Amino acid sequence: MENKRTRNGRDRQGAGRATTNQPSSTRRATASEVRAQDRYARSRYGAQPANPTKRTATSQPAADDAAAQRLSRDEYAKTHKHKKHGKLFYAGIAALAVVLIGAGAAFAYVQVLSGNLHAGLGNVGQYLVKTNMTKEPFYMLLMGTDGSAERDESGDFGDSYRTDSIMLARIDPVGKKVTLVSLHRDTMVDMGEYGVNKLNAAHVFGGPALSVQTVSRLAGVDISHYAEINFDGFHEIVDALGGIEVDVPMTIDDEDAGGHLDAGLQTLNGDQALILCRARHAYDEIGPGDEYRAANQRLVISAIAKKLLSADAASMASTVQALSKYVTTDLGVTDIIGLAQAMQGLDPSTDIYSAMEPTTSEYIDGVWYEINNTAEWKAMMKRVDSGLPPTDGDVVDKTSGTILATTGDGGATSAGTAGDGTGAVKRGGTVAIRNGNGVSGAGFDATERIQGLGYSVNTSNADNFDYRETLVVYNDPADKEAAEAIVKALGVGKAEQNANTYLFEEDFLIVLGADWQ
């Protein structure tokens, strides 16, 4: 009988195991596949053997594994606390470095990477849906892996090993926006012939190719590019930039993460930034550590992006050299140069959105899983796919001060007023949208964008359809900044104070002109 209870927020480890009988396979597994799956299942991060051609409900782990399973989570952590932890790095740095550095630096970057840029990609190209990456938005799967210190513990088999950080990035070279959505590594997913497993097991069973397929199905979007980075290079990248400025949400004391970190605005070196990105147990009394860790990762990514934009030639060269040792991607030389040129002008303080996959935690058949909240997830991805921030507003944990989702604050600081992706303050105000160009349905997209800023909206037609330029009109001089932020959200038009020309009761009036398409 299935054993299920609500998770208490404690730590989870590993890529998980198959917990249901596998569906019939359309092919027989090769001998090497069977051996890899059995080795994975016997590791401390797996459980029952995952043989695609034969599974039994009575399979039992060996005696040593059974003893290990009886260890409590705290006992297990104590057993391994003195071992070097290489459990985390996130691939967002790789993607942002690619899109933020200038064309000259990008060329130097790919020259250095020429020998190993595509190493380990396998057949992932078969599952990537190509787009015109300089002229239309696309999705990129970003994976952070541990390729050294703990591979003996992590279910590593050959070139396939677990991933500790998984992000789906939407990159818009036209709107110059980047959206980062962190996915729980423990999300329960159906991997077909490999059965039901945790999301990060995809890399073990099928490398980049299976990871792309699995995340694409989960998110309901086509993935066009892939980037993978090893944690080993993290401190080198940060140090090459001369450190990064981050407002640390709360004091961290976490031996497993590497030590102590004070709260507050400060410049972090590579080792300190790694502590912030790895810390989970520091949040044990607050909530699920993985969510806070993922939020901190996005915080650091934005800080690195900001530093990259202002780096001098020497710092950029050092950073490129550090990146070159640890990045694997399908992007080619011309791709990287073209994308770098297209993304010039991105402002990390307003143009980077982020969020975490909405899930609930459950303990099923002896394994902790994150269960995707389907309705919330679909709503989030609909917003992401339309170019809006993933959430209506910033999600800030009141206890720790950590920003769990940002709509444009950029993540370099967790203090201050919640951002909205454009600099507008969330005020719960009202907006009247009037169609002044005569195009049917013109107000629909505008309404979605303005509602995404936190306003209530009503729509109607203007007094005529001859408006050439979109107007954002305000009565109170104090609303000028918010009106200008609305203009930025729309992407066209101008803000102007009402000179008794327009009659409206709302806080703002938007008249859509011929420039609104």
UniProtKB/TrEMBL annotation:
Stretches that traverse the bilayer: 88-110
Specify residue ranges for compositional bias: Polar residues: 18-29, 50-61
Q: Which Pfam families match?
A: LytR_C, LytR_cpsA_psr
Matching InterPro entries: LytR/CpsA/Psr_C (IPR027381), LytR/CpsA/Psr_CW_biosynth (IPR050922), LytR_CpsA_psr (IPR004474)
Q: Where is this region: Disordered?
A: 1-69
Tell me which Gene3D superfamilies the record gives: 3.30.70.2390, LCP protein
Keyword check for DNA damage:
no
| Statement: the UniProt record of this protein carries the keyword Lipid metabolism | no
Keywords in UniProt for this one?
Membrane, Transmembrane, Transmembrane helix
Q: Where is the Cell envelope-related transcriptional attenuator domain?
A: 162-309
Limits of the LytR/CpsA/Psr regulator C-terminal domain: 430-516
Compositionally biased spans, kind Basic and acidic residues: 1-14
Q: Which NCBIfam families match?
A: lytR_cpsA_psr
Similarity annotation: Belongs to the LytR/CpsA/Psr (LCP) family.
Which protein is depicted?
LytR family transcriptional regulator
- Organism, by scientific name, is Senegalimassilia faecalis
